[in-house]
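Ticket #4471: structure output looks truncated?

Reporter: J.K.
Steps to reproduce: submitted the chain below (298 residues) through the standard prediction queue, then opened the result file.
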Amino acid sequence: MKIIKEAEGGGGAVLGPGDLELIGALARRPLGPEEVYTFSVRLCDNEIDRDFERFAPQTLEELAPMFVGKSGIFDHQWSARGQAARIYKTEVIWEPGRVTRAGAPYCWLKGCAYMMRTGSSRDLIAEIEGGIKKEVSVGCSVARSVCSICGADRTVCDCGHEKGQEYGGQLCYATLEGAGDAYEFSFVAVPAQPMAGVVKSARRDGGQDLERLEEEAALGRKYLESLRSEVVRLALLADRELSGKTVKSLVDKLSPGELEELRGSYARRAGKRFPLRTQLSYQAENAASREENRAFLA
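Returned output as attached by the reporter:
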């Protein structure tokens, strides 16, 4: 089964010990550090994505060596003209203390890619450094797509469980198992796996504070969860006919920008249904009340 998964990220990387040798093994001659530009790519992870699918950690381990030597292109257009970079090493990264929506320890497949510093690549390098080109997508194949509810292989038969729905309080998703092959990674516009893509590196010269970046990432995840909860709350206020489970299932697929846009829309609609009222009321007294109060006037 062919799989295409998108992801998101952001900047360049520093050449490490032995990197030039690994790059040289893919080139036709030894290359100097001034000739190449390198960057790290978060290819894919084991989080449940917008398609309600996730890679099993073992699948990521199996894909890691398969991606070495694979090209970076654009929008999965398999043309030599579009080849922009090549992966020279990979590694599965585990993030201690972080768990996925499925309750498993979080991990992701990191790919280190290089491209030649030429006149034609100058603009692309600038776009990567500037965060313009940062979403990437991987093309690969897997043997099985396993249902989280019943364990059936969805590539063989339709088990009847719908991805994204809950059954007995358990979310239905598919786990991708048995790596078959890795084809390429592409720069794309719209990601399916929000957490993956071109990633910034922690520089050895102290240019990046890794601990600070991790703290900021944790704050970002906390904000995203808070934003999702707020959108669900406002949606239910704006439309009583909506199902809480349905809304939650929908917002889990959206990007932060999409969530903020929905929050504004639902907030306006909820405001019309439940307008704010002042605590004090200055309505005119009725005639009967005024007549009754005259008895106390001197």
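Triage note (M.O.): checked the attachment and the full token line is present. The chain has two domains: 2-201, 217-272.
Status: closed, working as intended.
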